[in-house]
């Protein structure tokens, strides 16, 4: 085989340039700015700037609001992931058994994915609005006083439902594809051996589905932690009493509304570290240890 | 012939060039909807009234968004000449020496016949430095008042022409209303922070913070956990438990007005500028107006209420022509005709005495429209009722809401909640002081 050798040193760089420039301008440079800002204390207009070392980070770890936000984020991310993955797995299994209507059914289920997070938020905000919403009215008939404006639990439930609903379509598609890739012969063989439907699911289907499940697990956690800003902003704005103030929303609020750039930058550096950890987990453990 | 041609060519060029020849300045604002349309009408009026200057308004979203946009633009050297900033941003703007041009300085250097005494001290006092110099130009100022449902009052056997004057009466009337089934709740309110904390303090001549509520310097700290505020928050919690009071949510209290419109609650305390909205939505009943209630056992109450809303700030780094344009625009804006037109359309307060006099007919024809202006001018403002000025105040307002929610959910008592407001707020004030020194 003949190897082609390009003598021109410049050409490979030139071909790489667009990608490199995009990476630098849109990723590395802003990230560098955030790291720099996290060591500074500055007034809103940028007139007086002082280098404060790790003060902004130390302040974060001593701040009950930040620790609360960490906890809220964990509860939120886990609830959204479990709820949306659980429901979509159920739906996928249901569709997998259908013969004729499966297509129509899956198309309908994909619809919510096309809805923007902010619109989804407004939608649920209307449905659950304590004054004019339909759900509180119905819950009231059943004797439950729904009020996500003053009740922390209700508020968390609202943002979890709205965020999970949005993600169901995505999970559903992957689960359905995963299910259809499992050879029917395996399940049939198990059935012949006398395994019931529940046994078949837990011993055959679920383990074979594990690559999909683990992939979705990471995707859903990342989604819940970073892509749900629109839902939170449109429904609870982090309230009541910071009960739904997840890390990403807090970065926005402290930086953009509160004009506290140093603290906001320190928080985004922490988030960057979190994303790194999640990515490492995905590549190191999930991709290797899961049987395909 | 040639001369004629060239003359017309010059005329043509002049007409083409007129857009460039006049000085155009940008004004970033946060007035959407009908108010935004009215604002553009006012600007059009200014642009048509002369041909030297032109103002270009652009809508930048909510108050915090507009302020953030202007600050970001300033950092990138792309700032507008004029920006509309809400009252809680005052501390941040004021501390930014070098980023702003104080209005009194602008008007003295570039304006014609600027007379600070023409302005109502109760309105502009909020935006002056300790020497009494105007720092920004009030544009839309309002103050909270009480709205009540006359039909419900009548059904409950109360005099529909007599709104409650004291908090004791609010409680008594509410109980009568609920017992007679005229409505299911006594009252609700917008703005826990602005109305039930800041205005409550000013209305009872109680300090909100040290250093004249922050007017005296950056080392001011909050002190709104006094006995009057604690007693009031305690009452609100008790009234909420008894069903007399319904909480309308944080910040502006978005869920409060619907409670009043649907006749669930018989009374609501909200901005005087929501008058037009209240009338438009109260289709099935007649609305009455009253001043904010007070505790009659507090000495000095009622004092005067304080304002909210937004003012126009001038940013630094612009040319003399641009500042002259801004000064001319402010002159136009504070003229009695423009003020009276804007105030009667929007329900905001007139900012000059002349404008208020001009509105006498309007007030006579529209009962209740003057409640706000009467309330802020009830007494000469004291140190406690001039207004407030703290840095990071957007977040502090958020803290007030959060701690109030802790009180509502029963996690804290009134004293504990207000103590937390002071403690957490002071941490932010210390941070702000460190950033700006």
TrEMBL record, chain A:
NCBIfam families: PRK10561.1. Part of the ABC transporter complex UgpBAEC involved in sn-glycerol-3-phosphate (G3P) import. Probably responsible for the translocation of the substrate across the membrane. The lineage of its organism: Bacteria, Pseudomonadati, Pseudomonadota, Alphaproteobacteria, Rhodobacterales. Belongs to the binding-protein-dependent transport system permease family. This is sn-glycerol-3-phosphate transport system permease protein UgpA. Residues 70-282 form the ABC transmembrane type-1 domain. Gene3D superfamilies: MetI-like. Keywords: Cell inner membrane, Cell membrane, Membrane, Transmembrane, Transmembrane helix, Transport.
From TrEMBL, chain B:
Gene3D superfamilies: Periplasmic binding protein-like II. Residues 1-21 form the signal peptide. It is found in: Periplasm. It comes from the Bacteria. Pfam families: SBP_bac_8. Keywords: Signal, Transport. Its main location: periplasm. Part of the ABC transporter complex UgpBAEC involved in sn-glycerol-3-phosphate (G3P) import. Binds G3P. Belongs to the bacterial solute-binding protein 1 family. The complex is composed of two ATP-binding proteins (UgpC), two transmembrane proteins (UgpA and UgpE) and a solute-binding protein (UgpB). This is sn-glycerol-3-phosphate-binding periplasmic protein UgpB. It comes from Paracoccus rhizosphaerae. The gene is ugpB.
